[in-house]
Amino acid sequence: MQIDYQTLTLDYVASPDQRAASPVHHPVIIVGAGPVGLSLAIDLAQQGVAVVLLDDDNTLSVGSRAICFAKRTLEIWDRLGCGERMVETGVSWNLGKIFFQEEQVYSFNLLPESGYRRPAFINLQQYYAEGYLLDRARALGNLDIRWKNKVTGLEQRDDGVQLTIETPDGPYELLCDYLVAADGSRSPVRNLMGLESKGRVFRDRFLIADVKMKAEFPTERWFWFDPPFHRHQSVLLHRQPDNVWRIDFQLGWEADPKAEMQPERVIPRVQALLGQDVAFDLEWCSVYTFACLRMEKFRHGRVIFAGDSAHGVSPFGARGANSGVQDAENLAWKLRLVLAGQAPDALLDSYAREREYAADENILNSTRATDFITPKSEVSRTFRDAVLKLSKEHAFARQLVNSGRLSVPATLRGSSLNTPDSEPFAGLMVPGAPAADAPVRRDGAPGWFLATVGDEFTLVTFGEGAVGAVPCGGIPLRVVRVLREGDGRTHAGGETVLEDAAGLLAARYDARPGTTYLLRPDQHVCARWREFDPARVAAALARATARS
């Protein structure tokens, strides 16, 4: 039976910690059971770290909210054991169309090349995403989720953090080595510490309407500039599961948010788009204001910020939830190594630097999109409209159209964890890049490359060349050997052997016999060479764990 995640109420259950004579210690406490907090908690628990997850509420999100989940996020959720369920329910799409006034000016394909396990995006209501993550989290014995547990006090020490937590049974205290605040844009943890996010608030408002209907619209992203049914404004349309369609209407800065959410205002706007004869039900609506904000630093001693608590962007481009889940994947393996004593505390500084860089990239793209969508002067509007007219016939103009540069993961080129190339390579798999997927065969069965890497450092070697022992300094290192399609030989020594179906993996990694890659536990490239050298691999591994 399908669970109604929008109406699901999670039970408050008193923890034995609340009856302890002194504060109980936990390695990691996460505040906020949204997509980011749940993803991080699952990742840590899968890697053997005991986690306590606190949330001041006892329900999941209501309404669509974040709906566009990108290929990279789906790959992360595959590793966490719930990606397939997301894709089965979600609406997959790669194609988008841009309209200006009465006509379509062009379309684009976000994944024009085949040979990937996941689509460019799925549309999935946030309550489904949270519900599936919650189901996965409940299956992990070392993950303790506590509902109706509100953090009301915080004291940071040299050796950890002490929290005061309010519950229906009264307050209690906890200790932890590290606290992660994934508690949203209004972050109570951030406020308790006297910190703030700074940036730019855009003087415009948008109405979100979730409409249930049976429509002939294809499963695509449609964006209108100045359409006849909503003159001088913009509109975005997305299909979601259960015959629910998400429509965003630009309203302008002077719009009254409360008045615009009334059905008598919303329904005529939807009818103008769909036509008077189309029947629909209004499920949920909200009014939001664009803002691009971020904290100056994502790490403050033993308190670490992730997701909307650390950074916020406008929703066009789907960069909010996707970047937050990428925060979680970046942080999980680093916390695990530090807690295990396999890496110094300084490794956590790289989380802050890498994800601050990614946040700046997202904010830049989001700001540019917002400026294009909502021009603030007649000159800007004239320029935008001219670009849209030209884009119908001219490719150069399409590069200037910006209805939201859709989320892609950051390539962490300047990371201190990377080992720079010492030999020439072509393609996108530079140190700092998220690893590309490709079809493979393992033991004769079809599969995918990314399903064989992650959670641990992985040495990927192409061809038959010998791979000797690497002095790893106690860091687990998996070895994956990639052979040409049809070469079904096996190898001893605990290697995972893959056949490169159709040669796509070698093409995407610019690999030839002897080429060797070192991948991080979060499936990012950190080093690559044209031949295996144990000393260079050991040095790169030390650098990637902040031990050099």
Short description:
The chain has 548 residues and is an alpha+beta fold. It contains 13 helices and 26 strands.
Key features of this structure:
8-stranded mixed sheet, FAD/NAD(P)-binding domain, single chain, 548 residues, 26% helix, Glutaredoxin, alpha+beta
Explain what you see.
- The chain is α+β, with helices and mostly antiparallel strands and 548 residues long.
- The chain has 3 domains: 205 residues, FAD/NAD(P)-binding domain; 93 residues, D-Amino Acid Oxidase, subunit A, domain 2 (D-Amino Acid Oxidase, Chain A, domain 2, 2-Layer Sandwich), CATH 3.30.9; 106 residues, Glutaredoxin, CATH 3.40.30.10.
- 26% of the residues lie in helices and 29% in strands.
- The chain is built from 13 helices and 26 strands.
- Strand 1, helix 1 and strand 2 form a beta-alpha-beta unit.
- The model has no long low-confidence stretch (mean pLDDT 93).
Compile the SSE list and pairings.
Layout: E1 24-31, H1 35-46, E2 51-55, E3 68-70, H2 71-79, H3 83-89, E4 91-93, E5 95-100, E6 103-109, E7 121-123, H4 126-138, E8 143-147, E9 150-157, E10 160-167, E11 170-181, H5 188-192, E12 197-212, E13 221-225, E14 234-240, E15 244-250, H6 257-260, H7 263-274, E16 281-295, E17 299-300, E18 303-305, E19 311-312, H8 320-339, H9 347-373, H10 378-391, H11 395-398, E20 439-442, E21 445-448, E22 457-462, E23 477-484, E24 496-500, H12 504-508, E25 516-519, E26 525-529, H13 534-544
